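Reopening this one. Same input as before:
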Amino acid sequence: MKKKKGALLRAAEVFDVPGQPALGVPRVTVTGHSRVHIENHRGLIEYGPEVIGVSAGDMTIKLRGQRLEISAMSDMELVVTGEISGIELDV
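Same output, byte for byte:
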């Protein structure tokens, strides 16, 4: 599956088509130090006021900070707000 996904991502780049939504690749949008929007997540791994861990397929996204909370969540997207001090990607 990884080879197929890699080939599809390369094809999307060649044709200048965003491959992330179709392939389920996560997209992380950071706004300042107080808001993170994650698309194509696979669920929560860890949830607390100082750490929020999110499964994103082949990787884990870990947000660190103070007073973190999930302000919106659906099956494909979530928004974390609070004082964000760091974002870690574990591939």
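So the earlier flakiness isn't reproducible anymore. For the record, The chain is about 20% helix and 55% strand.
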